């Protein structure tokens, strides 16, 4: 009675596996600043709960497998602001961005096929792929380049006949990189030349700073039949617990195929969809204030990091993450050390070590992801503790 | 740019694929009695919405990947009534019974492995398996036997080295069969002899009629390490739109493996879990009244069917389905004919043709599933229409 190879070979979530150490620190009475998870502290718009509270059907029935038409309509309107023009059957509502990714990968890749992913990447791309026997091949991006893409030739060399799709997040998790219009165009060109899909995880679309422009893969006309856009209300509206995601594509035959998977799991929760309809109607000024807040935090984290000798970190311009090279032997050991053995006045910090964000063995060992999801004061305290921790860590490398 | 073989080979939901014909009938002004889907009309207990309405956190945050401890506690108490004794880490909360099935199949079977399923079966067993390259092998059960299992030797012959698990629903969808204690014991014995898991879909556990006893696979001590129990609030509490399911198993190593899949999709919706906690605390007398209602309906359907010449249907004793042999050439054609060309005073009926519930080609062509999820009056009208439809169908076989 054995478990499947695909499940035993699946790696544990590198973001969640250090949780027991955090629990241990708390049990010792330490306060832990969580810079390790992307759980924003921004308030969820009230409209979400208000609409759910007024639900008064006597029977909580199945919804449609593709999602509620009203929610799809609200998303169609949302996309128009970004010059994307979708129809009802171009959008499927999913259980979070997670299910959107899983279904997209199943739809384009068979067992033993490959997806090509710029690394470091959102670790669950790897998890979902392992679960369905798809191999993750990677395009290595470097801290020194602010995690922008390498040149076309380098990417081309990573493509082989098994490659079925690019999968990437833009703005990037864990890097905070925002790809330039030229980078987006380069991947689009490669997708056409090598007949690939592009699974574009754009759940952080709004979180772009410094007045930078943003190019969605949904804006490149000539690849509209090969682009699959993954979205979610989790980060966009600080509603991680709603688990409402979506797949959008103008490839109608692809959408018909993915609909079969949606029918298999019957539907997405009715109430959460009712709430999400209102979220997608949130006025634009919501993002203005939220972005101002995140940009301020980004500045705190970026400036604090550059104030620590030996840290390498180019200024990230999107999402709410920084992936920094630290002057330590091993970021996982360092994180455990901070939780077990270090504190400043009874307070310490938890990071997400980056090794698990790479497919290439050995990379990311001295890197960690910092999520700037705490308020300004807490963030300043946390960064100060991090600085002192690096100064005091026995195995620092400078 | 091709789609994966696994998605193109996945069959469309046989329950949902005739929906366009129903829409057509409605567009013509016909009333359609839906006997085709398992959407109960029973009211969801008020406690569900009441608890959700009182949620007042400012941020709708991620829940734990394994599910809320309070919900798991409520389920532990629920299982005690059935003499099943689970601990916190024996239960994982999932996005409906659907995700519970998908994760269980991924955990026990690799690509090209097989699961062994009594047919006719819940069609999504097939859907999920195709999506992850697992083959469905079947044990044929017959209308003449009330869809009870064949003898041990027949089942044994269907087991081969690729077989990893039995997957079955008990009480049965689409058959309404409730396996006897001897049948449950026989499968348990086979699972031990051939080193198999048992994925026991027991979402209809409460819906057993005629005062019959019920044996859960969770009651067979000697297979407790190989039993995976799938549950859901959908049918139990008429809360299909909540999408709260679960996996329960005393195999702690297995649960650790499946937890990795749960971590990959982060969590199940927070609000729906809050509602489900209250559902699992629903007093027992809820089931007494609900069961009385379903038993009455079962009797109406069973007696009406046996009043139609040429119909074969043994009395089903559980769930809320009947799978009947009809005197027609092809139940799918017959269903389409009822929707397109037949009515009694502007009213017609929709069934779920059973061919898609079989893995063996050719079986089930003259069978259909009837879900008795309508009130007494509507059900009587619908069964009367069905009788007249069979009398008038040009391709009936008697």
Automatic annotation (TrEMBL), chains A, B:
The keyword Transmembrane helix does not apply. It holds the Pfam family Aminotran_1_2. Keywords: Aminotransferase, Pyridoxal phosphate, Transferase. Transmembrane segments: none annotated. Residues 31-344 form the Aminotransferase class I/classII large domain. GO terms for biological process: amino acid metabolic process. Signal peptide: none annotated. Its EC number is 2.6.1.-. GO terms for molecular function: pyridoxal phosphate binding; transaminase activity. Gene3D superfamilies: Aspartate Aminotransferase, domain 1, Type I PLP-dependent aspartate aminotransferase-like (Major domain). Its cofactor is pyridoxal 5'-phosphate. The keyword Ribosomal protein does not apply. It is an enzyme of class 2 (transferase). NCBIfam families: PRK07568.1. Belongs to the class-I pyridoxal-phosphate-dependent aminotransferase family. This is Aminotransferase. It comes from Alkaliphilus peptidifermentans DSM 18978. The lineage of its organism: Bacteria, Bacillati, Bacillota, Clostridia, Peptostreptococcales.
